[in-house]
Write a structure and sequence with these properties.
The radius of gyration is 20 Å and the shape is globular. With about 375 residues, the chain is mostly beta strands. The strands form six sheets. The chain has a five-stranded mixed sheet, with no helix packed on it. Strands 7, 8, 9, 10 and 11 form a five-stranded antiparallel sheet that branches. A four-stranded antiparallel sheet has the order 2-26-25-24, with no helix packed on it. It contains three helices and 26 strands. The longest helix is centred in the N-terminal third of the chain and has 7 residues. It is about 5% helix and about 40% strand.
């Protein structure tokens, strides 16, 4: 069944969706999986899944569920095993269990990193990151879970935690996206770590040489600022860091993330406030970092990967975006510092997470209760 949002997109709308940053109407298409040459198989079901990470050297993956469960799943299985030793999470709104990644040295240490929303005093909350050893066996569990980083300050509300993680290709640094928590101005305040992308050591301490280290405190964590709600954070094979973030009413964007740069939120956006109040456009402030592409209407991204497998050779080096609002996969090409939309694959439902399997095939997780894990392979 065609997604109703995609069904209403005219060629002109598709052109405008690029906001002049990338595509022309004839470049981007919307296709059902069959027409795109893809086979889709439903594998397992989850309750409000949020993130998925394959464990290096295995055919197993960890999957977080927002209400606070961590699932261990093995390829080929339709069932999962609960992992014990998980933290209590502040569930509600956009909050709960968040991201999960394996440490670069997982093969020897068994360490994994997790993010979640944590309750503070009163009605305040904030994202945290913890790390623990994943002990396998009949009853897998986390041992020695320790919080290594916190959003500061904790604030009211249940939105824009972001809390995505990515290790640098050399494994030396942990990059973290910290959302503005729907408070707007903290994204421009270098004395807090909200609305930022951070560069940390694997133990959560600020990485040496960060651009604002001389300010001390949490400022020493900051790599870039002026971010709204970054839900995708990924390194390309060439070592460059890309993010994808939600705009307000319009203005979802992909950015090439570079140190000390100001990405403009809430000073500029290619969208407007939800109450209709206009926001100056990115192009009006050439002194600020410009997005590689923006969308209006939004695609409402879940996360993004850069494809490196061999199963889909024509996708090599391209970005694959999990589309919540767009109801499928948005495929983009990267050309220098610009991004161009290539195709939308309609999966008929909100997609929260997309991941590349060890064999190069693709898995997607739907959003919400009763969400399906779906396996995508070339159509035979």
């Amino acid at each position: 069944m065609t997604n109703p949002i995609l069904r209403t997109l005219s060629p002109l709308t598709l052109f405008l969706a690029s906001c002049g940053a990338s595509i022309s109407a004839q470049d981007a298409t919307t296709a059902e999986p069959d027409a795109a040459g893809l086979a889709v198989a439903d594998i397992a079901t989850f309750d409000e899944p949020w993130a998925m990470a394959f464990l290096p050297g295995t055919n197993m993956a960890l999957i977080t569920e927002k209400k606070g469960k961590l699932k261990l799943w093995r390829e080929g299985d339709t069932t999962t095993v609960d992992v014990s030793g998980v933290p209590a999470v502040a569930y509600g709104g956009q909050g709960g269990f968040g991201d999960v990644v394996a440490a670069p040295d997982y093969a020897t240490t068994g360490m994994v990193y997790l993010s979640w929303a944590e309750a503070g005093q009163g009605e305040t909350r904030g994202a945290v990151i913890g790390r623990a050893k994943l002990v396998m066996g009949e009853k897998p569990g986390l041992e020695g879970l320790t919080v290594i980083w916190r959003q500061a300050p904790k604030v009211s509300g249940r939105g824009h935690y972001s809390h995505r993680m990515a290790f640098s290709p050399d494994g030396k640094y942990l990059f973290v996206s910290s959302g503005d928590r729907q408070k707007f101005t903290p994204a421009q305040d270098l004395t807090v770590n909200l609305g930022k992308i951070l560069r940390l050591m694997p133990d959560g301490t600020p990485a040496p040489g960060n651009p604002f280290a001389d300010k001390g405190g949490v400022s020493a964590q900051i790599w870039s600022y002026g971010h709204r709600n970054v839900l995708g954070l990924v390194f390309a094979p060439d070592g460059r860091l890309w993010d994808i973030e939600h705009g307000p009413a319009g203005g979802d964007e992909i950015n090439l993330v570079e140190p000390a740069k100001n990405y403009g939120w809430p000073l500029v956006s290619d969208g407007d406030h939800y109450d209709g109040k206009p926001i100056p456009r990115n192009a009006t402030r050439p002194d600020l970092a410009q997005p590689a592409i923006t969308w209006n209407p939004v695609i409402a991204p879940g996360n993004m990967i850069l494809y490196t497998g061999k199963t889909f050779p024509e996708w090599q080096g391209q970005g694959l975006i999990a589309g919540l609002g767009s109801g499928g996969i948005v495929r983009v090409g990267i050309e220098g510092s610009k991004v161009r939309e290539l195709e939308r694959i309609d999966l008929g439902n909100r997609i929260r997470e997309i991941e590349q399997a060890p064999d190069g095939s693709i898995y997607v997780l739907e959003d919400g209760e009763g969400a399906k894990l779906r396996h995508i392979t070339p159509k035979r």
